[in-house]
Every structure is written in structure tokens, then in C-alpha cells.
Amino acid sequence: MSIQNKTKRMFAYTPDYAVAPGVTLSEVLQSLAMTQKECALRCGLTEQTMVRIIKGEQPITYETADRLEMVTGVPASLWNTLELQYQNQVRKIKQNQAYEQDIRWLDDIPTKELKKRGFLAHCDSKAEMVGETLRFYGVASIKAWNDVWMDPTVAARRSDCFETSVGSASAWIRLGELQAQDITCTPYDAERFKRALHEIRTMTLDEPASFVPKMRKLCASCGVALALVPTMRKVPWNGASKWLSPTKAMILISLRGKAEDVFWFSFFHEAGHILFGEKKRLYIAEDRNRDKQELEADAFAANLLIPESYNQDITKITASSEVLAVAKTLAISPGIVAGRYRHLTGNWSFFKDLTRSFDWDTLDLEVSPHR
């Protein structure tokens, strides 16, 4: 979105009243020194019809617009445009009146954060913000939002975060969906995705500026959209995954924390869900969520990064040089080996100097706002 268009969107004037095209018609008749009765007669309409049009009680149809052009000399296209604008404004006023009843729904939605990120426009009232927020979610009503995000069959319902902070949680996932929608993917191919994951594993030695575009391209070629969304307050998740369509999946990674071992494990964990999980479920990587499928995804990610057969040797490491030696053997980043050591031993302060912290702020990771 260009700066000019964004400015128009954020500061566009939206009046809280509607001006009927009959007002303009009355002014035109005055300039022509023509009475309403004479205009009705010349148009082949009843005087009552003309009165209702001027009062805004009856719309100007396309046929009536053609007749008015013949009588007044004002193009039919103008009458049609005035009528359309009037009806649209009447609809918006009624809609905002309905939104007034739903203002409390906004209490749990992180509207300030979404505005800061550019995904919600400035609104003059909370009622308008209800409509703006519904557009962000891609739903037409609060009922539709509840049907999408409060469905008890969604796997995310098992998460304490989703139960207590559904607004923030849904907003973060929606940001991922919008980002993923902008990524063009070929139809999903499981075997190709498996091969791509092994190629992506070789990128753990690189920096984000190098591996992010390559990862996204590889994933997209397999039918998987990789979305990277900065963390949001009250959303303590490392990642999530879901199917956007039968042929397109999304892996959503939170830039929560900057440790490389967490990032890579989260990615391969979600990849495991795409390969082996159910297509109708939304999977969320949360430390407290340890059901069978989450544990299976953990095992998949762990073994792809570092085969389980290395675990015993890793627990015996006593020096940084040994970490580097194992990493070289595995052709993987030393930070991931160090992370595995900490996970296996519980020595959380050991070899932290070998684990890189990624600087995501230097990358343009989020898509531009859709409005």
C-alpha cells in the first residue's frame, strides 16, 4: 500500500449523516425555475413520486435517472452516482448503529497493537473500530467471528492462552494467515516437502537475511506458506500450523525470543504437524500442551536436527570445543547442539555464548497491511 493511499484510508472523512440525491434535484429545479409538479409531468411520474424522491424516501432508479437527464440536462450517471453514494452512506450509518451494540467485543482485541503494526486504520468511534476489526479478521459480523474463533472443536481450545486471551491469540494467528495468503504456493506435495526440510536443515549455519527468503521459496514450492510474525503480548507461543486450503498449509513462527535453537526447533516441529497431523486442526506450540501429537512433532523435529543416537554423547560434553566438533560432524549450527545439551542436562546457563541470537528487526518480515 502506498503512503498516499494509506493516508487516505486512515484519515478519510466519514460523515455520520446521509444527503439524499433529492436535495441536489431540488437545487437543480430551483435553478431551472421549474416546480416539482412540472418536473414530474415532464418525467412522466406522479407528483407524489417526485415528492418522495426529493425527500429521500424513494430511490432514483436507472430509468428515472434517464428521464431526469432528458428533463434537467444533468447526466443520468450523476443521478445514479448520487443515489449510490446516498444508499451506501445510509447503510454505513445503520451498520455503525448496530456496531454500537458490539463495542465491548473490542475489549479483548489488541486494537492498539494492530493499529501500530498498520493493520487497523484510525477510526473516529469505537463503533467504526468494530467494523474495521471485523474487516481485519475477514468476517462480516461478531457471530461469524465467534463461529470461526470460538468453535470448541478447534484444537487451540486446549491452550490456556486461547481460553484466557482469545483476542490476542486470534489476532496473532490472523496476522500469520494474512501473511501466508500473500505467499503464492504450488499445490502441497508431501514427498517434496520432506526433501525440502533436509535442504532447509543445511541453512542453520546461515544468518536470517540469507536463509529466510530461501526457506520461504522452498516451502512455497511444496505447498507450504512460511509466515514469520513478531510476538504479541499475552501470546506465549513459539509457533502454530494449520491448513488454509486442501492444497496449501501454513507454518507460523513467532519471533518470540531470539535464540537460534528455539527458532529452528519450532519450525521443524510445525513441519512435523504438516506432514503427519490432521488437516482440520490448528496446532499450537506451547510448552504446557504436551499431548500425543505434540510429542510426536517434538520427536520429529529433534531427530531431524540431531539424531537421537547423538544424545548420550552430547550429555557428556564438557567444553565448547566438543560442541563445535559435534556440530561440524552433523553439519549444523553449534548453537543447536548447545541448545540440545542444555535441554538434555538442564544446565541452562552452559554454552550460551555458542547460541546466536537472531536480529529480526533488520528484516522486513510482515506483509504490508491489506487495507
Brief rundown of the structure:
This protein has helices at residues 3-11, 21-31, 36-43, 47-55, 62-72, 76-99, 111-116, 126-137, 142-149, 160-164, 166-181, 190-201, 208-220, 260-276, 292-305, 311-315, 320-330, 334-345; strands at residues 224-230, 239-245, 248-255, 283-285. The protein has 371 residues and is an alpha+beta fold.
Beta-strand content: 5-15%
Average residue-wise pLDDT: 88
Number of strands: 4
Helix content range of the residues, please?
Answer: 40-55%
Low-confidence stretches are 1-13
Largest sheet: 4 strands, mixed
Separation of the first and last Cα atoms: 7 Å
The string of secondary-structure elements, in order, is: HHHHHHHHHHHHHEEEHEHHHH
**What is the 3D shape?**
elongated
Strand arrangement across the biggest beta sheet: 1-3-2-4
Overall structural class, as computed from helix and strand content, comes to alpha+beta
Tally of contiguous helical segments: 18
Give a description of the structure.
Helix 12 packs antiparallel against helix 13, helix 14 packs across helix 15 (292-305) and helix 14 (260-276) packs across helix 18. By secondary structure, the chain is α+β, with helices and mostly antiparallel strands. The model is unreliable at 1-13 (pLDDT under 50). The chain starts with a helix and ends in a 26-residue tail after the last helix. The chain is elongated, with a radius of gyration of 29 Å. The chain contains 18 helices and four strands.
